[in-house]
Amino acid sequence: MADSAQAQKLVYLVTGGCGFLGEHVVRMLLQQEPQLRELRIFDLHLGPWLEELKTGPVQVTAIQGDVTQAHEVAAAVAGAHVVIHTAGLVDVFGKTSPETIHEVNVQGTRNVIEACVQTGTRFLVYTSSMEVVGPNIKGQPFYRGNENTPYEAVHRHPYPCSKALAEQLVLEANGRKVLGGLPLVTCALRPTGIYGEGHQIMRDFYHQGLRLGGRLFRAIPASVEHGRVYVGNVAWMHVLVARELQHRAALMGGQVYFCYDNSPYKSYEDFNMEFLGPCGLRLVGTRPLLPYWLLLFLAALNVLLQWLLRPLLLYAPLLNPYTLAMANTTFTVSTDKARRHFGYEPLFSWEESRTRTIRWVQAVEGSAQ
Ligand SMILES: NC(=O)C1=CN([C@@H]2O[C@H](COP(=O)(O)OP(=O)(O)OC[C@H]3O[C@@H](n4cnc5c(N)ncnc54)[C@H](O)[C@@H]3O)[C@@H](O)[C@H]2O)C=CC1
Ligand SMILES: C[C@@H](CO)CCC[C@@H](C)[C@H]1CC[C@H]2[C@@H]3[C@H](O)CC4=CC(=O)CC[C@]4(C)[C@H]3CC[C@]12C
After folding, report:
1. What pLDDT does 4 receive?
2. Ligand 1 centroid, distance to 141 Cα (angstroms)
3. Quick check: helix, strand or coil at residue 5?
4. Which family does it belong to (predicted)?
């Protein structure tokens, strides 16, 4: 229970607080966490928008730092009550080496855990991913599954491998004694594909559509369902889980939660059209215009081109064998574990999430002209 003696007493640290999700978590904490005294935002690249936050009642401390540097992480964590670790390298396009992805996502997470242990921080929330479960390399569907649904989680790609390892480290750390002797309480949230204001891939699809004369061409069958969740609801779930972890440690410690809301189950492309359609784009074709084998061939060709061009430039298109497999495999969640354990209900309805995202795409359009 939030007793009044604790009001405005807590120090939170958000790693990756200047990223797509991180910025929403930061803003949500400032709006929805009455116990906040200081909010520390740790990121490799600090955004200029942080300045506007510094005038409010909560002390906002921006820390430029690297999660792979243990001493920088320890300095940022020292004195924090709660850490929300959302920093990570999200790369499924081959922009970064597998070693770097591992270093940031796995070693970075290890550094965060060790910093909590050494400095006495007791509560750690980790932003994991649905990719920890799947889709797997066999392309098996996961249809409206929950946290207990059996599924063969087998990965080869560096990103899901790194997220799975990092999540395991976080869960195993639950119960470790931190400085002062009390136990560390950890949990992990697994968002499905996040969308909303600031979503770079949505922006890329939008610009691609504009370049193609207001059209996008269907590549994925409409029957393949892909789980999506609005960024505001993901942020809200982080705020809520961080708060409730402090009161329900026995129930929530060491647990994983899918991060979900009421966004409809649709194919990746049809879902994007919910926003891009009202912004003037059209999805051409009721069925994929190219056969799957040809898409696979083009995806493989992109890998070859990426490799050949690497000495000259970074060629990292959206289509590669991994993203094609992802988009082509049904992966949707249906669960109420977060509601049962910590009272989560989405803060934004589907209609509001959709409206906000459309407004943002329209603003992107305006700023591009
Ligand atoms: N975008 C999505 O659909 C999903 C994302 N996630 C997870 O959510 C988290 C946030 O993802 P996004 O906001 O989409 O990515 P993002 O790339 O927009 O944000 C990541 C942030 O981490 C920071 N960062 C990267 N390397 C760092 C380092 N070495 N030290 C300190 N900061 C560093 C970046 O500067 C960036 O601000 C990630 O952990 C990702 O794995 C999980 C599920 C879905
Ligand atoms: C074949 C293309 C034709 O239009 C479509 C390619 C779409 C892909 C770029 C995306 C399809 C599925 C996405 C991923 C999924 O939403 C789950 C994710 C979880 C994360 O933790 C990070 C992001 C992502 C890997 C996301 C990335 C983009 C897709 C592969």
Report:
1. 44
2. 26
3. helix
4. Belongs to the 3-beta-HSD family.
- pLDDT (0 to 100) of residue 96: 95
Token pair in block for residue 2: 């939030």
Q: Give the distance (Å) from ligand 2 centre to CA of residue 226.
A: 9
d(CA 26, CA 18): 8
- Per-residue pLDDT of 63-81, as tens digits, reads 999 999 999 999 999 999 9
The type of residue at 65 is: G
SS3 190: strand
The whole-number pLDDT of residue 368 equals: 54
What is the set of domains in the chain, with CATH numbers?
10-200+228-264+333-348 (3.40.50.720)
- Among 15, 41, 90, 228, residue to substitute to test ligand 1 (most atoms within 8 Å of Cβ): 90
Residue 41: how many other CB atoms lie within 10 Å = 26
Closest CA to 207 of 316, 267, 285, 281: 281
Distance CA 99, CA 81 (A): 31
Prediction pTM value: 0.96
Other C-beta atoms within 10 Å of 147: how many? 14
pLDDT, tens digit (0-9, with 9 covering 90-100), for 108-156: 999 999 999 999 999 999 999 999 998 887 889 999 999 999 999 888 8
Q: Which two tokens stand for residue 81?
A: 């009550």
In DSSP notation, 102-134 reads HIIIIIHHHHHHHHHHHHT--EEEEE--GGGT-
In 3D space, the residue among 284, 321, 255 whose CA is nearest the CA of residue 94 turns out to be: 321
pLDDT in tens, 336-345: 999 999 999 9
Looking at ligand 1, which atom is closest to the CA of residue 194?
Answer: 3
pLDDT band at 107 (very low <50, low <70, confident <90, very high): very high
Ligand 1 neighbourhood includes 127 CB (under 6 angstroms) = yes
Cβ(328) – ligand 2 distance below 6 Å: no
Question: Quick one: tokens of 365?
Answer: 């359009």
C-alpha–C-alpha distance, residues 26 and 85, integer Å: 12
